[in-house]
Amino acid sequence: MKETSFYVHIPYCVKRCGYCDFNTYTPTELRDGGTLETVSGDYIDAVLRELEIAHTQSSGSVPTIFFGGGTPSLLKAKDLGRVISTIKEKWNVAPDCEITLEANPDSVDVAKLQEFKAAGFNRISFGMQSAVPHVLATLDRTHNPDNVERAVRAARTAGYESVSVDLIYGTPGESLDDWRTSVSAALSLGVDHISAYALIVETGTKLAAQIKRGDLTMPDDDLMADMYLLVDEMAQNAGMSWYELSNWSKPGHESRHNIAYWRNANWWGLGPGAHSHLDGVRWWNVKHPTAYKSALFAGNSIEQEREVLTEQQLKDEAIMLAIRMRDGISLNKLNKDQVSRISGYCQSGHLDQAQWSNGTLQLTAQGRLIADRIVRELVV
Question: Is 312-378 in the same CATH topology as 5-262?
């Protein structure tokens, strides 16, 4: 029986962070004088309409459901619970289905987290980003860093089986000691999972404008590399293993939903701008929430564009995704020319020699720093 994961996009935030280029909107961006409730009131109804479409095109079991955004924790648990209940009604949801909620630490307390738990969530991911006030200020983040610890404690009290935090490194003005402070703070929380992403400055964001004016300066590549190696060392010393280039977890707490992406499995993305992939066909929805809702309520298509992946594209993407994983790539899936082109990376310390001898391409910590370069050697 085929599996299909679901991603549910919640495109609302109280405030747009200076670095954010995600498909999210504040109430004032959507409606003058509007509140979150007024702009999102019928949004879940629209998502349920899209689920009806999904049910005509996919079947089988559901191993994971992920609510991302935006800030999903701003919506009421009963509204998000309607989506979970509908998926359970229409699909065979696995008994151990991983159901994740992304949350801003400032937006939750024990009572609210208990409501989300009752709605079906069993995993939660907090957007921590940093524990250093001046770094959060540069990122234009709204949360108080002290609230992360409070939110994690509340999640444990509410009975969540897995708790994760997201970190960002490479913010302008962030030193290696600043980054060490943030990683240490995250690990001290006793979480089960950490994601650490290098900051990418997207055109059109407030942060990009500040850098263009010369108000801020990005760290150099050497510092970025040192930051990555530091979080890798600290996480592993704390009992977490890397299982994907930017992710570390305690045993059994890997994000199964994200692993589905990296293995190019089937998933359906619900919501404006959400991407989906079923059996080699990929498509994405119209981007704006108003257009998304209007089309669904009028019975019109919400599809913005689609592509049918060729056999070569599927092979190339399998390499680009699998190389990020600790499991690596079986050498018997590569041709002789590919193996020849990258064999030198064993001698340079970028590929694990023991794994190579066992027939697997696995990146070392140094290799993960140049993963894109190695991919270019494989995909020509």
Answer: no
pLDDT tens sequence across 39-88: 777 999 999 999 999 999 998 899 999 999 989 999 999 999 999 999 99
Instruction: Indicate the fold that domain 5-262 takes in CATH.
Output: TIM Barrel (3.20.20)
Instruction: Give CA–CA dist 317/310, Å, rounded.
Output: 11
In the chain, where the domains are located: 5-262, 312-378
**Largest Cα–Cα distance of the chain, in whole Å?**
64
Q: Model confidence over 194-220: pLDDT tens digits?
A: 999 999 887 788 887 888 898 888 889
Helix, strand, or coil (residue 196): strand
Q: How far apart, in whole angstroms, are the C-alpha atoms of residue 275 and residue 56?
A: 17
Q: Can you count the helices (H) and strands (E) in the chain?
A: 18, 14
Q: Report the sign of the C-alpha dihedral through residues 286, 289, 294, 299, in that order.
A: positive
Between CA 112 and CA 123, with CA 118 as vertex, the angle to 5 degrees is: 80
What is the fold of 312-378?
Answer: Arc Repressor Mutant, subunit A (1.10.10)
Model-wide pTM > 0.90: yes
Buried b (16+ CB within 10 A) or exposed e, 197-216: eebebeeebebbebeeeeeb
